[in-house]
């Protein structure tokens, strides 16, 4: 008879679930992971990775369109075949998806294929999947277990999230897309309305604009990328508009009329005026909601809040032996948050000493549009709202040698310090490669670095990273190159 008893059972193999499984195995725990659809979850198959592959094609397109400014001549016009761009992106996902299967095998983690439901503390039943794999890249790995009853001392729910739907504007997969259809378009639309300007909406808006699509972004808040620092968001908006994107803020899509192969979005602005925007498709990017349904959570009395499972800083729910991590455990809904939350959770379970609870104030956020946006910690407005006395430093890409050499001289690095202690409490960036730069400030914040430590740090020349130091110097009236 198959062995069905484990130390840890993890439901969901996204970045939260699979990383937790690996750490559990490293800690000597007998571990199994249940997956109903795709190893690697949304992140590898429909989120972080395939979007970055699409955006890489967009970046090359943008560079090619500016070849002349680099002294290069491109004979003819650069064109994109949508099926080839999508095929590359799907190929990248497939490679990483296979990589997760390999990692499970290497770490001797059992993969149980099917849909899990928690029947009582310490027990799950795995049934047939209600969401069979939608892509041929996801064959059921050989030698995995399937439907049945499994037991474990600890059960971790890592079931992720799915697109939020607005009543009356529900995605239909044809005229109103979610990220699933936007990731794998069967044709290149001529025009698009993107509803919502968070990271997902803006990344798709940026990709399609680079592909020559007429894009209108509609955002209900007063700025694009509403969680970002207002100054950074304003610079990004200007740059996106310069690239030909239309952006409407303090505006909402009130109604969508569907034609046979196009839509009419009725957009209501703050002053009560309605404009009708006709487009081939509308992408609904109004956030995501946790996958908390059909897991048996209600029967167990698991506390939830606004579609997510309520946990403490170590992933514990209110039911003994039941934990939750990643998107299903609430915002920020980011892959690196999911991974870190999982590691904290499993190390606590295994009794690793000195495990720190999750500190949500130090989670970086990145948006890979053109120009990129990245941040960590408090925005200037949030710091002021908290009544903190602050010092703010700024340094523009236009004054950095490497940025000019790259032909990427539009952007800003902004740093926020606590005036009394000198502690770095926020860093915000817009411009080329800032999604790679931000980690420098994340490490600094984690080490509770002050302005002095940063000023004593030597940054290599010529790099974009020099602007990080200059921004710090600027906060203290010592900027050198501006
Ligand atoms: C378009 C897009 C772009 C994104 N870009 C980024 C980015 O650049 N950076 C970033 O950090 N984040 C990004 N994200 C967010 C990121 O994808 C999520 O934060 C991350 O995937 C969450 O990981 P998770 O492990 O919590 O859940 P998921 O990755 O959603 O995985 C959950 C898994 O659980 C499985 N599952 C669900 N219910 C069951 C069940 N009952 N039984 C068995 N299996 C089940 C699902 O099939 C899924 O595979 C993006 C998201 C989208 C949609």
UniProtKB/TrEMBL annotation:
<dbReference type="InterPro" id="IPR004099">
    <property type="entry name" value="Pyr_nucl-diS_OxRdtase_dimer"/>
</dbReference>
<dbReference type="InterPro" id="IPR036188">
    <property type="entry name" value="FAD/NAD-bd_sf"/>
</dbReference>
<keyword id="KW-0520">NAD</keyword>
<feature type="domain" description="FAD/NAD(P)-binding">
    <location>
        <begin position="6"/>
        <end position="342"/>
    </location>
</feature>
<keyword id="KW-0963">Cytoplasm</keyword>
<dbReference type="GO" id="GO:0004148">
    <property type="term" value="F:dihydrolipoyl dehydrogenase (NADH) activity"/>
</dbReference>
<dbReference type="InterPro" id="IPR050151">
    <property type="entry name" value="Class-I_Pyr_Nuc-Dis_Oxidored"/>
</dbReference>
<keyword id="KW-1015">Disulfide bond</keyword>
<dbReference type="InterPro" id="IPR012999">
    <property type="entry name" value="Pyr_OxRdtase_I_AS"/>
</dbReference>
<keyword id="KW-0285">Flavoprotein</keyword>
<dbReference type="InterPro" id="IPR006258">
    <property type="entry name" value="Lipoamide_DH"/>
</dbReference>
<keyword id="KW-0676">Redox-active center</keyword>
<feature type="domain" description="Pyridine nucleotide-disulphide oxidoreductase dimerisation">
    <location>
        <begin position="363"/>
        <end position="471"/>
    </location>
</feature>
<keyword id="KW-0560">Oxidoreductase</keyword>
<keyword id="KW-0274">FAD</keyword>
<dbReference type="InterPro" id="IPR016156">
    <property type="entry name" value="FAD/NAD-linked_Rdtase_dimer_sf"/>
</dbReference>
<dbReference type="InterPro" id="IPR001100">
    <property type="entry name" value="Pyr_nuc-diS_OxRdtase"/>
</dbReference>
<dbReference type="Pfam" id="PF07992">
    <property type="entry name" value="Pyr_redox_2"/>
</dbReference>
<dbReference type="Pfam" id="PF02852">
    <property type="entry name" value="Pyr_redox_dim"/>
</dbReference>
<protein>
    <recommendedName>
        <fullName>Dihydrolipoyl dehydrogenase</fullName>
        <ecNumber>1.8.1.4</ecNumber>
    </recommendedName>
</protein>
<comment type="similarity">
    <text>Belongs to the class-I pyridine nucleotide-disulfide oxidoreductase family.</text>
</comment>
<dbReference type="InterPro" id="IPR023753">
    <property type="entry name" value="FAD/NAD-binding_dom"/>
</dbReference>
């Amino acid at each position: 008879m198959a062995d069905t008893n484990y130390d840890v059972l993890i439901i969901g193999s996204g970045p939260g679930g699979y990383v937790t499984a690996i750490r559990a195995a490293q800690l000597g725990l007998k571990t199994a992971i249940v997956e109903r659809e795709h190893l690697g979850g949304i992140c590898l198959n429909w989120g972080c990775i395939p979007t970055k592959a699409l955006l890489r094609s967009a970046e090359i397109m943008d560079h090619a369109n500016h070849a002349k400014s680099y002294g290069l001549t491109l004979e003819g016009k650069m064109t994109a075949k949508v099926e080839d761009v999508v095929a590359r992106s799907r190929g990248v996902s497939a490679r990483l998806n296979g990589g997760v299967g390999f990692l499970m095998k290497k770490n001797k983690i059992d993969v149980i294929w099917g849909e899990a439901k928690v029947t009582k503390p310490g027990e799950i039943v795995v049934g047939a999947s209600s969401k069979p794999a939608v892509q041929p890249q996801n064959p059921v790995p050989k030698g995995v277990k399937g439907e049945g009853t499994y037991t474990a001392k600890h059960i971790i729910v890592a079931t992720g999230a799915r697109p939020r739907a607005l009543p009356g504007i529900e995605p239909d997969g044809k005229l109103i897309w979610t990220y699933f259809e936007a990731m794998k378009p069967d044709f290149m639309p001529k025009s698009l309305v993107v509803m919502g300007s968070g990271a997902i909406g803006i990344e798709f808006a940026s990709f399609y604009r680079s592909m020559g699509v007429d894009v209108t972004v509609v955002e209900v808040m007063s700025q694009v990328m509403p969680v970002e620092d207002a100054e950074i968001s304003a610079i990004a908006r200007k740059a996106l508009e310069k690239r030909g994107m239309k952006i409407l803020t303090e505006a909402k899509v009130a109604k969508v009329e569907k034609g046979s192969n196009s839509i009419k979005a009725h957009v209501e602005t703050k002053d009560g005026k309605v404009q009708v925007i006709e487009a081939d498709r509308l992408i609904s990017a109004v956030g995501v909601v946790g996958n908390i349904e059909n897991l048996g959570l209600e029967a167990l009395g698991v506390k939830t809040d606004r579609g997510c499972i309520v946990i403490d800083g170590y992933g514990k729910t209110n039911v003994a032996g039941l934990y939750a991590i990643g998107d299903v455990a609430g915002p920020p809904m980011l892959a690196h948050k999911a991974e870190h939350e999982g590691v904290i959770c499993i190390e606590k379970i295994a009794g690793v000493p000195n495990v720190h609870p999750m500190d949500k104030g130090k989670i970086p956020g990145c948006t890979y549009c053109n120009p990129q946006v990245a941040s960590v910690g408090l925005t200037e407005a949030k710091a002021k709202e908290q009544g903190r006395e602050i010092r703010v430093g700024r340094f523009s890409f236009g004054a950095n040698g490497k940025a000019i050499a790259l032909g990427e001289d539009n952007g800003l690095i902004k740093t926020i310090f606590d005036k009394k202690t000198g502690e770095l409490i926020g860093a915000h960036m817009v411009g080329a490669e800032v999604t790679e730069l931000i980690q420098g400030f994340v490490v600094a914040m984690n080490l509770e670095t002050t302005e002095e430590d940063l000023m004593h740090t030597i940054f290599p020349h010529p790099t974009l990273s020099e602007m990080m130091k200059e921004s710090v110097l600027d906060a203290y009236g010592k900027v050198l190159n501006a």
